[in-house]
Amino acid sequence: MKGIGIQLGSDYDLLVSNGSTQIGNVEAQNQALIVLSNPGEWKQHPELGVGIESWILDDNPGNLRSEVKRQLKADSFKVDRVALDNGQLAISANY
């Protein structure tokens, strides 16, 4: 079942409840990890990651949207929309 996995908390540490790791929908979590990660941070997939911090001073937001789409598609997401709305990255995608 794609999109189901070990959940992380808001601090990106394992989500544990009653001594057990939590399992559930991880689509949004995986999207966030792809956008936040820099290329080279995932040993098994060295090209994975948008590295959003490196895009802060980019003059063309279209480049960021294209890179987010490319990276999400590489992880098998079906991307409907990637937009910058008032400085916030809005993603509509699912497996």
Kindly describe this structure.
It is a single chain. The protein has 95 residues and is α+β, with helices and mostly antiparallel strands. It has one domain. Helix content is 25%, strand content 26%. It is built from 2 helices and 6 strands; from the N terminus they run E-E-E-E-H-H-E-E. It has helices at 27-36, 61-74, and strands spanning 4-6, 16-17, 20-21, 23-25, 78-85, 88-94. The protein has a two-stranded antiparallel ribbon with strand order 1-4. Strands 2-3 form a two-stranded antiparallel ribbon. Strands 5-6 form a two-stranded antiparallel ribbon. A hairpin with a 2-residue loop joins strand 2 (16-17) and strand 3. The protein is globular, with a radius of gyration of 14 Å. The chain starts with a strand and ends with a strand.
